[in-house]
Amino acid sequence: MTKEAGKRSRVNRGPLAEIDLSALQHNLKIVRKISEERPVIAVVKADAYGHGSVEIARNLARLGVSHFAVAYTGEAKVLRESGITADIIVLFDRSDVEDYFTYGLVPVVQDKETARKFSVEAVKRSKSIRVHLKVDTGMGRLGFRPEQTVSAALEIAGWEGIKLEGLMSHFSEADLADRSYASHQLNLFNEIRFAISGGLGRPIISHIANSAAVLSLKDAMMDAVRPGLLLYGISPFREGFGLMPLMTLKTSVLAVRDLCAGTPVSYGRTFITKCDSRIAVIPVGYADGYSRLYSNNSEMLVRGRRVPVAGRVCMDVTMLDVTSIGGVCEGEEVVILGKQGNEQITAAELAARIGTIPYEILTSLGGRARREYVNGH
Length: 377
Ligand SMILES: *Cc1c(COP(=O)(O)O)cnc(C)c1O
Fold this sequence. Notes:
Layout: H1 3-11, E1 16-20, H2 21-34, E2 41-43, H3 45-50, H4 53-62, E3 67-70, H5 73-81, E4 87-90, H6 97-102, E5 106-109, H7 112-124, E6 129-134, H8 146-157, E7 162-168, H9 180-200, E8 205-207, H10 211-216, E9 247-252, E10 255-259, E11 264-265, E12 271-272, E13 277-282, E14 299-302, E15 305-308, E16 318-321, E17 333-340, E18 343-345, H11 347-353, H12 358-366, E19 370-374
Parallel strand pairs: 1-19, 2-3, 3-4, 4-5, 5-6, 6-7, 7-8
Antiparallel strand pairs: 1-9, 9-17, 10-13, 11-12, 13-16, 14-15, 14-17, 17-18
Helix pairs in contact: 8-9, 11-12
Bound molecules: pyridoxal-5'-phosphate.
Pyridoxal-5'-phosphate binds near residues 43, 45, 170, 227 and 229.
């Protein structure tokens, strides 16, 4: 556990995230089936999308996953220190070349200068390092330009200490119904990988399929798939594909107040009770990742029923209008995300309410929550 997380759990604030490890196993099975048992590079960046990278990686490793991907070396270090021995691919970090050797990590190389640094460090240590090259096929973020990739790859592959093992790229819009841009990226990637493997005289492990591509672009699966979102049980499409969300966010009622008709609630008096009302105060606010944009614009579950957020979300608390339920008491369970009884609030629903995507819901709420790992909800 990091210091920060330790501090947070002592303060005991914010929601409790229940993370269902049986759902993780279920989702991995689905990924393996769809990808016809290709190796899975499990993306566990950003603390496994707010689910806790150590526990998630440990469990995936137990289920036979042998490759992980993180964004920065610091995240990989945490995994190594908790005993994860599988391959860890670091997607973005170019800062500390030494860490890659210290922790035995696989860098994604995006330019020749960095590749040179890896070669120099490898020679210094009389070691070699496996690297994956990234080509920018249209994401416009990081990677070699397509027209420079083949020659750069062949050159770098010849440098001392470098074992050019993989080639990767990333889709910009594989989740859109219009497949034309994704197809363009895929064609470009294929051209480049065949030219490289031709030049090397051996295959190069090629991977480009994020969650959306796993579900919708069969030709993109290649030598390995690289999903994040799917493992956490969320589909980037409307269709659910039988995935099971891992995360349930719960809290309990901090206090209830009976207010007369016409009473304003919270900052700015944006909510005024229409009738005599019972308002429940919930110990979760925007400091816990529950966006202020949910003010008068979201619901939570109490006794398996939906209740609206009343007034502005505050830093540490939020108010719910529980009048319709009747008799709600202090201490009762409140579900912010997930199922309660027959009702469910999904990450997609929360995301749609505030104009974002489920990824941001998981990282902002789950990333700050206290966590408990369970098997089945
Ligand atoms: C985050 C990320 C992924 C995983 O994306 P999902 O949509 O969660 O499957 C794959 N590859 C790269 C390079 C990423 O940054």
